Amino acid sequence: MKILKKMIRSISINFLTLLILYITCAPLPKDFHKFPRDLDGSVEIDTTAHLPGKKSMNISPIVKAIEPHILTALVFYELGDWQKANDEFQLAFTFIEKISIRSIEGKLLFIENFISLPDYYQHLKIDKVYREIASAIDASERLDKDLKDSTSETGLPASELKLLDSIKYPSPSTEYRSLIETELRKLALKFGEENNLELPEDFIKEVEEHILTFQTSKREFFERTIRRSRKYFPLIKPIFDEKEIPEELIYMATVESGFSPTARSRANALGLWQLMPRTAKYYGLQVNHIKDERYDPIKSTYAAREYLLDLLTIFGSHSFMLAMASYNAGEGNVQAALKKMSSYKDRSFWKLRRAGFLHEDTNNFVPQILAAIIMSTNLSKFGFQEVSFINQALYTVIKVPFKTTLRTIAEAASIEQEMILRLNPDLEPDASSTPERVLNYPLFVPGDKAEIVEKRLNALHAAQLQKMAKRTSSNSIKNIGKEITDVLAYEVQRGNTLSELSNWFNTSIPKLKKWNSYLTERQMRVGDTVHIYELDRGWRKIIHIVKSGESLSSISKQYNIPIKYIQAWNGLNRSTIYSAQKLIIYKKYADLKRASKLKSNRGIIEKQFISKVEPFLYQVVEGNTLSDIAELFNLSVDKIEKWNELDLFHNQLSVGMKLTLYAPNDVTFIRYVIQKGDNLIKLSKEFGVSVSTLKKINSIQNSQLYAGDELRIFTF
C-alpha cells in the first residue's frame, strides 16, 4: 500500500515531462527532478545542469541564446505579427537542435521548462502560443495560394489587398524609426560619443524592441513608472546637476527600479538605484538589520551619483556608455572584458559589445535605458498620455521618517487626503499611508502647511523612539548575566553561517539568536550586525592595514589565524589584497573550542558545529546509497526523500550531488589532512567514529591512506 501511494503521488509534471520527452527521443537532465517548482508546477531551472549522453554538457549557453528569441517572439505574438513571431521561434529551435532535441514537442517542452518568463508573460503557455502561431501562418499561406493571380471578393487584386492590410497594421519600427534614430544620436553626443559615430543597426533594433515592449506587454509598468518619476525627477535633478551628470541618466531608475524606493532584486540589490549592500556601504550608507539606508531615496541617490562619478573616473569622463554597463555588471567585470580586447584602442562600449565580451544582461541594459529615456521625453509621440510635473510653487518637501497614515498628515495640515495624493503622484490612488520601509520619505505638502506637519511628525517620531527605548531597556543586556566581559559587533559577510559564528566565537546558535532577536524571525543576511556577548577575556577586533608586500599568507602567520577565516570575516572571494586595504581580524582564535572532546587538533583544517535540527549539506561520494546516508545520520530514507524532493522515479544519487539534511542531534563536521603514520583504526579511535563510516563518507575502497589527502569526518 505504501509503495502504491508513492507511485500515485509521483505522477506529476516531472513524470509526465519525462515520459513525453522519452517518447519523442528528447533527452532530459537526469537531475530534472531536483529543479524547484512554483505552485503551478512550472520549473525554475538551474541551467548549469547536465544532459545525459553528453559528457559534462552545460546547457546554460543554449538557454541564454534562445531566451531573447522567445521573448521577442512573444512580443510579436501579442502584436499579431505571426510571421515574425514564428521566425523567432525557428531561430530558437536551431539552438535546441544542437543538444539533439529534434521533435517539436521536445523543443517546446525544453522552452517551457528551461526559459524563465517575466511576470507579465506568466499567463502564456509556450505550447499553446506556438501552435496558434503555426495555425495562423498555415491559414495565411493557404489564403495566399488561393489569391495568387486572382481577384478578391472586393474586386481588388491580391497584391493590393495585402497592401491595404499593411497600411491597416503599420509596423511600429517603421512608424518610429526616424524619431528613434534622431533621439539616439542626440543622446550619444550628450554622453560623450564622437560626432561621426555610426550607430550599429542591431543596436538601433534593440532599442526599438525595448520601446515596443514598453508600449505593449510592459505598458502598465511604464505608465506607473512615469507617474512615479514626476515625483522623484525634480528631487534627483539638483543632486545630479551638482556634479554635471546629464539629467537624462535619471531615467536609469526606470530600468533599475521603476522609480520605486522599495524595489528589491533576487540578488539583494535594493532601492531606487538597486544598490548592492557592499556598494551602498562603500558610499556611506548604513546597511544592517536595524537600518537600511538604501530605502532612503535621497541618500541612495547621492550614493548612486558618486558611484557613477567613480565609474567615469575609471573609464574616462566621456565613457557614459561604459559607465552604464559597469553600473549593471560591476566595474571589475567590464575591466576584465576590456582586457580581452586585442588593442588598448578598442576601449569603447561599441567594440566591446560587438566582440561579445559583455554579459547578455549588460548588453540589454544600455539599450533599455536609452529606450526609457527616449520614451520618457517623448511620451505623446509613443502613444502615452503626457504626465505633468507638479508646480514647485505649490509644495514644500518634508521628510517622513517612518510609515505614517495619510489621515494623520491630512488632519495635521487641515487638508483633504486627496490633496496629498495629487501632490505626490508616486502614491497609489488608493494609498492610505506613506510607503512601508521607506526611510525619510520625501512628502510634498502645501507650502503653508509644511511647518505644522513637520511639528506633528517630529512629535510622533519622538514618541516612537521612546517606545523603542523602553522596549530595548526591558530586554537589556543586564538580564542576560553578570559575567559579560566584552561585546563584539560582527558584520556578516557573504557565505557566513550561524554555525561558523558559533564556532569562531566559542558560543552557541541559541545564544546568538537570544542576543540578536531578529535571527529568530528570519535568516541572517549580508550586512547584518550580530552582537556577541559572554566572550572570554582577551577578545579584540583588530583593524589590520595591509602594508606593501604583505599577503594573506603572511598576515595569517602573524596572527596565527587560517587564511580562510580572514577571507570569511572580510567577504573576500580571492586571495588578492592590496596595499592600504583594511582587514578585520578577530583575535583569540587559538582559544576556540577548547572544550572540544577531540584529543588533538593535529591535522584539522576546518571544524564546523551543527546544532540539532539545523540544516546542512552532505555531498554524495561514489558508493553512497540513501540507506547508507540515512543510517549514518540516524535518519529515515523517507525524510531524506522529502527534504530533497526525491521519489520512486527520481531517487538515483549521483556523485557530487548535495543533499539537504537536518541534524537529528548536535554534529561536528571536520576536514582533516592525513598525517604521516595515520591509519583508519587510529583515526577511528581518535575521532570516535567507526572505520566503516570513515570509508563510506570518503569513498575509500581499501584501507590504504596517503599523507596529505583530506578526509571528511562527522562526529556525534
List keywords for this structure.
Lysozyme, 5 domains, 28 helices, 11 strands, 46% helix, 9% strand
Can you give a write-up of this model?
- The protein has 716 residues and is mainly α.
- The protein has helices at residues 2-10, 13-23, 60-79, 82-96, 104-114, 126-147, 158-168, 172-190, 201-215, 219-241, 252-257, 277-282, 297-315, 320-329, 331-339, 349-355, 360-376, 406-413, 417-423, 450-474, 498-504, 509-515, 552-559, 563-570, 626-632, 637-643, 680-687, 691-698, and strands at 395-400, 441-446, 488-491, 529-532, 540-545, 582-587, 604-610, 615-619, 658-662, 667-673, 710-715.
- It has a three-stranded antiparallel beta sheet with strand order 7-10-11. A two-stranded antiparallel ribbon has the order 1-2. A two-stranded antiparallel sheet has the order 3-4.
- The chain starts with a helix and ends with a strand.
- 25% of the residues are buried.
- The model is unreliable at 1-56, 142-173, 468-486 and 589-600 (pLDDT under 50).
Q: List the domain count as a whole number.
A: 5
Spatial ordering of strands, largest sheet: 7-10-11
Determine the fraction of residues in helical runs and give it as a percent range: 40-55%
Radius of gyration: 31 Å
Using DSSP, what is the number of strands?
11
Strand content: 5-15%
Return the average pLDDT rounded to an integer.
76
> What is the makeup of the main sheet?
3 strands, antiparallel
What structural category arises from helix and sheet content? mainly alpha
For this structure, the CATH topology of the largest domain is Lysozyme
Low-confidence stretches: 1-56, 142-173, 468-486, 589-600
The dominant shape is globular
At CATH's second level, what is the architecture of the largest domain?
Orthogonal Bundle
How far apart, in Å, are the first and last alpha carbons?
35 Å
What's the CATH C level of the largest domain? Mainly Alpha
Helix run count: 28
